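Researcher: For the annotation table, I need structure tokens for F-box family protein. Please keep the output clean. Sequence:
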Amino acid sequence: MVAWSDMTQDVLAHITSFLPFPDIYRFGAVCKNWRSVSKLRWHPPAPELLWMVLEEDSETKKRKFYSLSEAKHYSIEIPELQGRYICGSSYGWLFAVDINITGILINPFTRECYELPLFPSYNEKSNVTTLLEKVPSDYIDGPRGYTFEEMQTLIVFKAILSHDPRDTSDFTAMILFGEINTPAFWRPGDSSWTVVDGPKYRMEDVLYFKGNFYVISAMNMLHVVEFEPEPKLTEVGPQIGKGGCPEQRYLMDFNGNMLFIERYCEDVEGLTITIGFNVIEPNLEENCLYEWFDIDDYAMFLGRNSSIFVNSSHVAKCKKNGIYFTDLIDGFSERYQDLGIFDMTDKKISTFYSVKVFPPRIGSPIWLTPILW
């Protein structure tokens, strides 16, 4: 009988195909032979629920993560993220802003990294965006007396990618920044961000869908980003929404269908909390809307990340027909997190994270798809 430590590489590698990535590291700790197989990376890790990126530990400076599948916290030393605010997550990469209002794009597990230029500044009074070559004085004493620390968490509302940088160097990063979440983009090799011209009202989400970037506004209007001859937003399709006043609007590519999602909140004991969602499919060709009442075996993950979905039948412990959400709420005296799962079947909210989260300045929970290779 062959000892476990002497099993052949092909058999051991096949075993790793059933393991999520934390278990692959545990697998590699068994013995020298297993460790060598764990580094071969012949198979991708088994599917698991998303992770949450949490705050930085104030003492060790390690970044905290929470595995939804394991219901377990991890503290990982990632020097590149020390002192940085996470403002976006896309394809397993994180957008992080430092105290000097510059950023990086990083895969926190492989440590692949892109340096990003200084983020654009903005003039709150006129809503006119400007690109600056150096850190301006109004980042220190801004229109409302913003400090560097405040600007670090406010300058970028959301950031996404058109493609996974591991697959191609021809990708575009798109951010929503400033007082009204103005779109701006950057591509590898650019020395600065390019601001997209558009209406002077608040934008709430951005999506890369079938070769184009789309932006949804607080006026429930959908816009497409046109890059030529000059970058600008152009309205497309009908006005979206059911006529209410949602707390937040999201866009998602759901199996090749563009979805518009509204999150509704109400005040409970002084806190604004989520009470429900509406899911709508805008048909741009027919110029009409279709309301969705369920998503069957799928689950959505919404927040400051690129909105994504998973098939619950492929991932253990995943709540089907559910919307997992995490968002940052600006209260009267502090910013706090609203976390939960909305069941589209019974319209009830349940919790997935037992710890009551009131995040410090650096770090707020954001969904991340762990990608190792």
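Researcher: And a one-line annotation?
Model: The chain has a mean pLDDT of 84.
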